[in-house]
Amino acid sequence: MHNFDETIAKLSNISQSELHHYGIEGVPFPSVPELKEVVEICRSLLFPGYYGKSIVDGSLLYHMGVGVERLYEKLAKQIEAGLTFVQAENEDRKSLHEHARQCAQTFVDRLPELRNTLATDVVAMYRNDPAAHNLGEVILCYPGMRAITNYRIAHLLEVLQVPLIPRMITELAHSETGIDIHPGATIGESFAIDHGTGVVIGATAILGHHVTLYQGVTLGAKNFPQEEDGSLVKGIERHPILGNHVVVYANATILGRINIGDNAVIGGNLWITRNVPADTKIFYKQDPQHLVYVASTFDDYQI
Q: CB 3.0–4.6 Å: which of 16, 51, 190, 256 could bond 43 by disulfide?
């Protein structure tokens, strides 16, 4: 049998690696399986009867009580693990524990508000898709709705300044649906993603109310300023701002900190790097000589 002693010794010498991270003894890292369960409990509370156990007459209050208690305990442990992951080893464990439970309590207290917002998303998805037969079909079947639900859960945790866990929750939806929404993005009510595969929404993007995106849409950054050592500058506002009632069709790419005005319609397969005025439609028009960009409010829109 081959002797792996040298390999084992090298692997064990993680002090020379920038990737090592023990965390604090006795507190595990955030768990993907546990966070999956947290999301599923949230779904059962936000959409009772559609997820989790069946609800029979008179049992809803009991169902909510059990679910809330389970969610609070599981979420508090995961938040504590996330806080531990980013804290120094000499951080006061008791204060981390208390802070985690306070964050979990605030999250649970805001679930009714979260459900009200998700209800507007369900209705928007239903109204925007003639193939949808009812609201229940949207809740149960649509990948866009699954991704939006994960995003809204994660965004609330992001607002509460919970580290790491929000990104893990949105990445769960990303792996399941192909829809990548950063938890730091700000998205208004009545948000709809039709089909959805390949949609990317960056961390500093801002979307108004009644925005609809189709598959393959990218709301990304135009360029990335660098530090002196070549690493990218963190935390700058680099993604688009979309107004209310904006529609972006399939495979359009909108880059940079630009504004897309209210009621604008962005046609498919376009590359947008400049502001688009309100009440404007941008699309390809077939010309006998060549393809040109045209807009409803002026003859030629230079992108």
A: 51
The Cα-based distances of 20 to 14, 23, 27, 58, 85 in angstroms read 6, 9, 16, 52, 12
Contact 144, 195 (CB under 8 A): yes
205 phi and psi, to 5 degrees? -65, 145
Torsion of CA 5, 6, 9, 10, to 10 degrees: -150
The DSSP bridge pattern shows strands 281-286 and 291-295 to be antiparallel
The predicted-structure confidence for 211-263, as pLDDT tens digits, reads as follows 999 999 999 998 777 888 878 788 899 999 999 999 999 999 999 999 999 99
Half-sphere exposure of 161 (CA within 13 A, CB side): 3
Nearest 10 degrees: CA dihedral of 9, 10, 16, 19?
-110
Whole-prediction pTM: 0.89
DSSP 288: S
Nearest Cα neighbor of 155 from 176, 142, 170 is 170
What share of residues in the chain are helix, strand, coil (percent, to 5)? Answer: 40, 15, 45
> In the chain, pLDDT over 70 holds for what percent of residues?
87
